[in-house]
Please model this.
Amino acid sequence: MWQNPGVYPGDQNQGYPPQGGYPPQGGYPQGGYPPQGGYPQGGYPQGGYPQGGYAPPPQPGFQPAGYGGAGYGEPPGYVPPGVGEDGDVKGFDFTEQSIRKSFIQKVYSILMCQLMVTLAFICLFVFHQPTKIWVHQHRFLFWIALVVVFVCLIAMACCETVRRTAPTNFIFLGIFTAAQSFLLGVSSSVYDSTAVLMAIGITTAICLAITLFAFQTKWDFTTMGGILLCAAVVFMLFGLIAIFLPRDRILTLVYASLGALLFSFYLIYDTQLMMGGKHKYSISPEEYIFAALNLYLDIINIFLYILTIIGASRD
Model:
């Protein structure tokens, strides 16, 4: 037990702490506090801070240990809260969520506009008798529209700058949609209005069911691109051969049924390409014009083949 609480044990002549203790010699002056203006020369730290209390700048080529050299940094391996190891901000996955959802909304908005224009042309050519008569008297317009369709389709399919650069892509898509709608209107005017309405209703139901199936199913149809291409080539050859065969009702029904089935699978394939996510292949979000064009072509082909089936069955 200490004999004198104010005196360090072992040295009754000196106070606490002993010489060589804390603070070190040359440290704080008597009184316990450094003088105004910072530490004295030779104080703590040795050769220490200049007057004013600021640390001297690091020498060229010197990188202080610990946190970053400029301002407050982070130690090696430190990951801020809410940021993943790959540097992506958690809760803002723009690659597969926000951008993909916006892309799907844009594609379906464009597709709905295309279908509305097409439906207006069909109704005009089917239900307005003077327009139907005028079109049948000017058949050359059909061939002009057919050439415009192929030119716009080739331009958008083969030229990346055409389908990705606005407003050029919308101009080409608008011209293509108008020309294709004209062709569908002329083709529909040959059939009875009841058959056209039935084909529109059946096509709507089929496309809606197929779209819901494509969004919900766990099967990945994006890997079937090669199979669908082979089926399309065989189908085209079958159509070329059927041109030279005698016109037969059974042959027409078989050909139209196969066409409707083929483009139903194409609709699933193109829908899943647009969805991305868990599917193996996906289309770039910059290709919204191309995605809308694919879906539009699938739907109108399904409509044409269903209309052919209805028309052949009623003959």
Q: What stands out?
A: The chain is about 60% helix and 0% strand. Residues 165 and 299 are 25 Å apart (CA to CA). Residues 106-313 form one domain. The mean pLDDT is 77.
